[in-house]
């Protein structure tokens, strides 16, 4: 694999530019002896018009990375941009607006409003924002997702797959700059999961959207253009044109390497020296230490429980799917 992207950060800048990026992104939870360093000076570029998957052992920081890139969580140090807008430092109200207007979200648990029908759920964020949906675009999304004859149904009257399709339509409705999907297939059987992954792929290929998906499933990651691998709060590898087998093999290396401490207390993978099959990535172990790094000092490195990864089973590991509907920016502005 070319290492062009590693010149500055992992991830890729596509022909259409960068939808989001982070520099020296550091996130520590808690303080004192119990503090956990969930993200350790991460540099990443998310290419516009591409489908990026984020994988890694449980606890490696996948959800935290997504939440920080999406402005759902504050950062301890470093910077995050959505397009050209630096979101680190924005006040709550501005962040809520930015999420609502420029980002779409999908979660493992769908997060639909039970009392609203599918059509109302799809347009809810725009309704709250007082924006009129682009009807032509909305029609296209609804047809693409095969929801035309389900619009009057409430979530309880829909299968899991249909509910996730509604959530996908809601994420797409405002034609956002970026869609974040956290384990979108985690609650679905494999057929419904495949369907949703197919729709996300189409959203990128046919609707020109940008998708970032956190997943535990190598088969799901294989739908992406690029897989970023997180280990102990760092991006330690990437794989373009992934296949399920290649991703599975790469994930197995986390299990093999876990518990093999090096001199700095991390694992080989965490230090960026591990390479995936056919990968030719430069190590990030020798990255310049970023200014924000001090935030992580005296903080325990996140030690994910790597076991059970790469089984190909969906939803086999817990997800930090703790984001409320209001967090998605679909609730009224807070003052
Ligand atoms: N709100 C929080 N408070 C304290 N620690 C947290 C919090 N959220 C995450 N962490 C810790 O940060 C680390 C990274 O968590 P994160 O949820 O991002 O990992 P993940 O890779 O998404 O895990 P999983 O695959 O299990 O969902 C873990 O050690 C986790 O325990």
Automatic annotation (TrEMBL):
Chain ranges of the ABC transporter domain: 20-257
Bias (Gly residues) ranges: 304-313
Keyword annotations: ATP-binding, Nucleotide-binding, Transport
Biased composition annotated in UniProt, kind: Basic and acidic residues: 277-292
Gene3D superfamilies (UniProt xref): P-loop containing nucleotide triphosphate hydrolases
One Pfam family this sequence matches: ABC_tran
Renumbered residue ranges of the record's region Disordered: 257-335
PROSITE patterns: ABC_TRANSPORTER_2 (PS50893)
GO MF entries: ATP binding
PANTHER family (alphabetical): ABC TRANSPORTER RELATED, IMPORT ATP-BINDING PROTEIN
UniProt protein name: ABC transporter ATP-binding protein
Taxonomic lineage: Bacteria, Bacillati, Actinomycetota, Actinomycetes, Kitasatosporales
